[in-house]
Amino acid sequence: SLGFSICVPLFTAPSSTMGLSVFFCLTDMTRFIRCATFLIALCALSACSEPAMTTFKTITPEEAQQKMQDAGVLVLDVREPMEYDRGHIVGAENLPLSVLENGIPKEMTDKNRTLLIYCRSGRRSKIAADIFVKAGFTSVFDFGGINDWPYRMTR
User: Tens place of pLDDT for every residue, the chain, 155 residues?
Assistant: First the structure.
């Protein structure tokens, strides 16, 4: 041992607790080097991981049509059932915003599945996309309203 200590503050409480601090003390150079190496490695690894989506992405109908060709994509129509029955995008599932606001269905467990969301004009789809992102879904896309959809629809 070299006979010295390095103390690093880990936590300082608010001033209302009279400046209480918690320190991590290193008493020799070997411990210091090991700790520093570990912290550097931890920082490097965390920098490599892809951050979770914190917001949804707005895309064009053309981009949505392209993404629909990918396997596993879920297209969600968040309009009310009567609106959905009058015409919807081929392959879209109806999950009304009024239902979604009460919670995401339990069967939607794959938070990495790509979700393409639309409504009539784009207002409800933005709200729905935000609900999914806040619930931890990582691949959420809003493509606005069916009013702007130039491709085939079905009843």
Answer: 445 555 555 555 554 444 544 455 545 666 666 756 665 655 555 554 444 557 899 999 999 999 999 999 999 999 999 999 999 999 999 999 999 999 999 999 999 999 999 999 999 999 999 999 999 999 999 999 999 999 999 99
For residues 114-149, one letter each, b for 16 or more C-beta atoms within 10 angstroms of the residue's C-beta and e for the rest, the string is: bbbbbbbebebbbebbebbbeeebbbbbbbbbbeeb
Q: Is 68 left (phi over 0), alpha (psi -120 to 50) or beta?
A: alpha
| Distance of alpha carbon 91 from alpha carbon 112, whole angstroms | 19
Measured at the CA of 144, the angle between CA 147 and CA 90, to 5 degrees, comes to: 65
Helices (H), 56-153: 61-67, 81-85, 97-100, 123-134
